[in-house]
Amino acid sequence: MPNNTLTITFEEYSSFDELNTTDQELCNEAIKAMSTSHSPYSNFRVGTALRLESGKIVFGSNQENVAYPSGLCAERVALFTVGSTYPNERIISMAITAQTDKFQITEPVTSCGACLQVMAEYEKKQSYPIEVLFYCQNGSIIKTKGIKSLLPFAFAESRLKK
Ligand code: THU
Description:
Blueprint: E1 11-13, H1 21-33, E2 44-52, E3 57-61, H2 74-85, E4 91-100, H3 113-126, E5 131-135, E6 141-145
Parallel strand pairs: 4-5
Antiparallel strand pairs: 1-6, 2-3, 2-4, 5-6
Helix pairs in contact: 2-3
The structure holds tetrahydrodeoxyuridine (THU).
């Protein structure tokens, strides 16, 4: 049986200073977004900022619940806000960052599978790739130009049809 290989493409920046100004601004907005995190159970604050084609910035932060599965990740909070409030605007890019009082985060925090699947949905809806920046405030930054590199085997609409 042959083994198949999949190659993904991403950019890695060793520090904030290496980013272009537009990406730096979005990363700073993601830091601001963490201030509304409701995370009393994990004490892990996640912030997301999305840039729309109009230049508008939309925020999201993780919202936890005492019934744990009822909570939602920062990315999906922000993406669903766009879907319900600005349904006809394209998302150009999004930045994600995280912080905790328990330890220093030294690597970019990448999104969970459910958030990646939701990113894939909106990317397909708008027929335009979404740039994603995983911003570590004390380490490197990962940037991808589109969701396909992050979730190459995303569940696709074609699977629902015969
Ligand atoms: N979290 C996010 O906000 N985004 C992710 O992609 C993964 C995890 C949140 C959920 C929970 O509130 C906390 O981080 C710890 O898992």
